[in-house]
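Possible regression after last week's pipeline update?

I re-ran a chain I had predicted before the update to compare outputs. Posting the input and the new output here so someone can diff against the archived version. Not blocking, just want to make sure nothing changed silently.
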Amino acid sequence: MLHQIAGPMEQFVIKPIVPLHVGGLDLSFSNTSLWMALAVAGVTIFLTMGMARAALVPGRWQSMAEMTYEFIANTVRQNAGEAGMKFFPLIFTLFMFVLFCNLFGLLPYSFTPTSHIIVTFALAMLVFITVIVVGLLRHGLHFFSLFVPGGVPGWLLPIIVPIEIISFLSRPISLSVRLFANMLAGHTMLKVFATFVVSLGAAGGIMSAGAILPLLGIVAVTALEFLVAALQAYVFAVLTSIYLNDAINLHEHH
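New output (post-update):
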């Protein structure tokens, strides 16, 4: 029945699976928790299978695992230099987690944790706090010279410094909103196209002329969503590398 078709936003509803309330806090194991756990399990299985039978001539799984490893390693080297490689485990973990959350969210009847701002903001705050801690440990109070670009005339500093501070503080917001908004918009579009196909199919058959175009649209949008899922994970890794480069090298360029 047409009136029973779920709305495009229903797929983002967080539902508790194992209710748990402690001292007024809702600590329930929800569908978000489940799919984040599945993403971690997926990453673990992928990398374990890839390196379980490490060979000089790599097989299919080993090739994919090694290509992913080298891809992120090169990304870190290009954006944070060799000094940034000590943070490679963090960046690689973030990339793989975001990638698998995004990809698993494209499965039928699944849930996309990265379509919720609280999840992406938590990841962004992890990066933000890491940058501050690394900067202070490496440079001490000199880290705050990050807000004073070199070569700027003294009379411009009262304008430039507040802008630099606001830009720095907005990083976790921009980092989290970029990922969340792309996942939310893409999945909403998929649901809308799917609703068109079901509605038009019910009216004149799934192979009717009116239903074929939206169906082709779903195929195209789904393919685009796979690209966006991988691209957003990559962008998250690149920006994390760039932010860590600021903490490591301040205004130096490599």
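Follow-up from reviewer: compared with the archived run. The mean pLDDT is 84. Marking as no regression found.
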